Amino acid sequence: MLTVLRPARLGPPDVLRVGATGLRTRPLRAVLSALGIAIGIAAMVAVVGISSSSRAELDRTLSALGTNLLRVAPGTDLFGEAASLPPESVDMVRRIAPVETATSVALLKAKAYRTDLIPAGESGGIGVYATDLDLLESIGGSVGQGEWLSEATAQYPAVVLGHATAERLGISAPDPAIEVWIGGQWFTVVGILDPVPLAPEIDLGALVGREAAAQYLDWDELPTTIYTRTREDAVEQVRSVLGPTANPQAPNEVDVSRPSDALAAQQATDEAFTGLLVGLGAVALLVGGIGVANTMVISVLERRAEIGLRRSLGATRGQIRGQFLVESLVLSLMGGAAGVLIGVGITAGYATSQGWPVAVPPLVAAGGLVATLAIGAIAGLYPAVRAARMAPTEALAAV
User: Fold this and answer.
1) Is the CA virtual torsion 388, 392, 393, 397 positive or negative?
2) Buried b (16+ CB within 10 A) or exposed e, 271-303
3) Fewest CB atoms within 10 Å of the CB: 77, 135, 210, 265?
4) Could you tell me if residue 80 is left (phi over 0), alpha (psi between -120 and 50 degrees) or otherwise beta?
5) Cα–Cα distance measured from residue 38 to residue 15, given in angstroms and rounded to the nearest whole number
6) pLDDT of res. 1
7) pTM (2 decimals)?
8) Interacting residues of 51 by C-beta distance below 8 A, sequence separation 6+
9) Cβ proximity of 310 and 90 under 8 Å
10) How deeply is 74 buried, as exposed, middle or buried, from its count of CB atoms within 10 A (0-12, 13-18, 19+)?
């Protein structure tokens, strides 16, 4: 009776074990090849993760500060000259029904210096502002150290410094003995503000009370900026009437802006830059895939004896092809998994150092692994097919 020999079937565990054999016998080469994949995946995951963490921080900031802050400032007249807001503009803005708060500051001609020995031209860009006492409520600001101006201190030469102003002047904490030179007058530092994302000009400002500004710094009592909070559902309606309300005589000379739009524009810029960096990560991933393909081609050439022996013992072309394809997939998957872990680690470290929430989209990590599998399949397909096409005698004879 004639017995028909059939090739043994290899189950998935067997294919995986056979495919991993080549990696175990050449560990250094496998690690270096996987490293190319890992670098590409790590770059992509880290870039997207850091960008997502930045957006999460921005969303958290906007949620805390609100998007209902509107800023009113004088523009230019028909002749290109600087316009001004009337003294009663703040009171008129407060009469708009959906407006919840309205406050103002006035940029003065005076400059702030650490001492009276500094040349007048070296002010460091610090602006001196006369301010209403309810300013912080409108702009979402807070006092980091010391105290805010009160009804009492607003009448005397007392000043509250913006966060950046305090750093430039080298003042770390308010103290009755610490004074700054403003407009030919010493002002005592009573407070230092935290950063104000929606009003960055205040960060680089020195704030004094209205009464003190009029008495010591020759303020003409004209506001230069009005900050107003309105109901969330009426922002655009209020924005459309702020100009005519603040300056009915010349509404075209009023600039109205929404500070949160600047943050949103910054986010859009960050997203565009993120797309560029992701593209660079994709190039690195492609280079890593070429490295895997090169490794697999060399592996086929070096292991012709093994291929010939297995073919002579009855291994089918499909089994040889599966062995080398699985080897390429395992090699790429090792690099991809390492890259995801490295990318998440970089994101977590950077976001934590910046005080941001850590946000790595799960789809990015999963997409990175899928991309590595796809690259592994493409990189290993040609070497696997080439190995499968080798005849047993040809493979053994080439040794």
Assistant:
1) positive
2) eeebeebbeebeebbeebbebbbebbbebbeeb
3) 265
4) left
5) 24
6) 47
7) 0.61
8) 270, 271, 274
9) no
10) buried
